[in-house]
Amino acid sequence: MTQIVIIAEIFQGMIRPVTFELAAAALKIKKLNMEKKYPGKKTPQMEIPGVVKIIVPADDPLPLADEISKRMDFDVIGLRIPGLKTYNSDIYKQCLSQLIKKIKPSHILAANTSQGRDFAPGLAVRLKAASISGVNQIRSDDQGLIYSRPVLGNTRNMIIRSMPDTPVVLTLMPGVFKQDLPDNKKKGKIEICEIPFTPVSGTTAKLKESSRIDKPVSAKSNSKNRILHQQILQKSCENPALKGAQIVVAAGRGIGKQENLEAIFKFAKCFSSSAVGASRPLVDLGWIGYEHQVGITGAAISPKLYIACGISGSSQHLAGIKDAEVVVSINKNPAAPIFRHSDLCIQAEALEFIQAFLELPRADLVTYRPANNKA
Amino acid sequence: MNILVCIKQVGDNGDMNRFDAFALEEALGLKEQYDGQFLEPIFVDVVTIGGQAASEIIRRAFGMGADKGFHIVTRKTVYVPPFVTASKLAAVAAKTPYDLILTGIMSEDLMEGQTGPMLAEIMGFPCAAGVVKTGLPTNDNAVFLEREMENGFRESLEIRLPAVLTIQAGINTPRYPSLSKMLAARQKKIITLAETDLFPEPIQAKESYLSMEYPEKTRAGHEIKGTLADQAKQLFNFLRKKDLI
Ligand SMILES: Cc1cc2nc3c(=O)[nH]c(=O)nc-3n(C[C@H](O)[C@H](O)[C@H](O)COP(=O)(O)OP(=O)(O)OC[C@H]3O[C@@H](n4cnc5c(N)ncnc54)[C@H](O)[C@@H]3O)c2cc1C
Ligand SMILES: Nc1ncnc2c1ncn2[C@@H]1O[C@H](COP(=O)(O)O)[C@@H](O)[C@H]1O
């Protein structure tokens, strides 16, 4: 049986939880493969050990490998790369491809995160593998496995197949493959494998270095590594207001102009314990501060109610509101993807709708209250 | 110093991919900031692969300040595997000793986020994806940058040139093409390359397109209809029932 390898995601010396989502996806692939191979049959074959291997690249991979094997009975390969303290795409691509070429797996899984997007496509090129990014569904048809990935601003999923007998690198959308792994009865096997990194040289097309006259050449630029990590920075993004709010009213590009944010703030004031959120483009445009950004590179929130005004519903935005209890969206386009991920859909011009809401004659409104409510 | 920016035409209106406008602005910004400080002048070229109409975005790039424009003319298809696109871009990029190649973090239509990192690998260059800040502080043999990660984290890197960077939105404010440059751009020649000249043999794709589907619904999706006032009232009642207002 061909093998499936997972590249564990490590950040600041810790295993990121998305690694366990990759494991869940690997199990899914394994199951689909088994069903193809032994149609109709069940569990015994499912137990074939060693099909899934998790690679943990680090200077000292043992503690991390140990942590993973405690949670899952997959084999773990601690890929020891002397000197690897933080993620580095050059080092990942070189050392991982050497190891993976020996394993010859059919599937290589990484997360579609800032790390996976950085190294996985290049790794695929090195391995002469197929490469499919942002996978949000894996299933099979009569010819084998097929993969779904979002396109066109999340309005469609494109179904892709990789060539038979070619390994495939998949980067998986975070948050879609459930982490509900089977109870771990036995610990997975741990193996440590050392592959040192050899700095890449000689690719510099430029022969002469034309230094700036006023500044000395930094000592670091004489280092052999092409990519030098300097430091991790963190934006002051802690946003207790957004994270703690019961109700979040959020604005997207559909509000048209910055001045219209005023209406969004007014709308939010209709609710107690509310805050204003925003899609990334509004933050990029400088209309509103980063602390309001909702999504994969902003805040993930879990309010009782999320009202999306003029937001299309990109996967990156939706990733931040998965845990909202109720989602209401206002969008003028009936085909906006956000409507597929809303409890209540209001097709309208966002600003006009908000105006109408603010102007509701209160006396007309039903004054229904749940019986158990004090008021 | 030579900079190449990969730009793609997307959508029904034939616009430049939003992320590529950020990439082009970043290249033009570097040129404005550092030109004259190194022994070599800084040039910013653009390249696109697309149908005839894709020349419009090259004109736009000229209007923003790009020097040379390359257009690989192809037929439009639903899906081109990123490796195929990257291989074609590499063929153009290899004709000039580029120090820095910028792409968008992803295209708005295919949303792969793979073309830049693959192009780097094909060229044998280092790569950084999701760049939100760049600079050439000490020499023109390395670039300083910040790369965006999740949850507000960034990492700062120094990368030896030549290199490929994929540019994230928000890194700058892309300029509008200037009228005078747009007029001058009409005289400028776009260097057109026929795909069949560059690639007599088609590049072998390892992925194939099957179909398009609508994404699954994850929530009830109840529609509120009627006049604005009706819709507003229904929302109010819905929220009241749930004790949210
Ligand atoms: C690595 C990466 C990370 C990202 N992280 C994030 C993130 O954390 N958060 C995030 O939000 N995005 C993120 N993005 C960006 C994301 O891909 C989308 O570009 C973005 O979410 C779109 O924002 P939007 O919905 O406001 O704009 P658009 O997609 O332009 O949507 C605007 C919507 O408004 C509607 N509309 C237009 N006019 C009106 C009107 N008058 N009334 C009502 N509706 C109207 C339109 O129909 C459309 O649906 C990220 C992208 C990348 C590549
Ligand atoms: N047809 C194309 N022509 C020029 N550049 C492209 C093309 N397709 C992709 N790119 C570049 O690669 C980036 C990422 O695209 P993708 O991998 O499709 O998400 C884009 O932002 C462009 O900079």
Summarize the structure.
The complex is a heterodimer of chains A (375) and B (245). Chain A has 375 residues and is of the alpha/beta class.
Characterize the structure shown.
The complex is a heterodimer of chains A (375) and B (245). Chain A contains nine helices and 18 strands. By secondary structure, chain A is an alpha/beta fold. In chain A, helix 3 crosses helix 4 and helix 6 runs parallel beside helix 9. By secondary structure, chain B is α/β, with parallel strands linked by helices. Chain B is built from seven helices and 13 strands. Chain B starts with a strand and ends with a helix. In chain B, helix 2 crosses helix 5. The longest helix of chain B is centred in the N-terminal third of the chain and has 17 residues. In chain B, a hairpin with a 4-residue loop joins strand 2 and strand 3. The radius of gyration of chain B is 22 Å and the shape is globular. Chain B is 31% helix and 29% strand. Classes of the chains: A alpha/beta (375), B alpha/beta (245). The structure holds flavin-adenine dinucleotide and adenosine monophosphate (AMP). The site of adenosine monophosphate (AMP) has 24 residues of chain B, from helix 1, strand 4, helix 3, strand 6 and helix 4.
What is the number of helices of chain A?
Answer: 9
The ordered string of helix (H) and strand (E) elements of chain B is: EEEHEHEHEHEEEEHEHEEH
Return Rg of chain B in Å.
Answer: 22 Å
Number of helices of chain B: 7
- Which outline of chain A best applies? globular
What is the number of beta strands of chain A? 18
Average pLDDT reading of chain B? 94
Bound molecules: flavin-adenine dinucleotide, adenosine monophosphate
Major beta sheet of chain A, specifics? 7 strands, parallel
Mean pLDDT of chain A: 88
- Strands across the major sheet of chain A, in which order? 7-11-6-1-4-5-12
Sheet having the most strands of chain B: 9 strands, mixed
Distance between the first and last residues' Cα of chain A? 64 Å
Ranges of chain B with pLDDT <50 over ≥5 residues? none
Low-pLDDT windows of residues of chain A: 203-222, 368-375
- Into which percentage range does the β-strand content of chain A fall? 25-35%
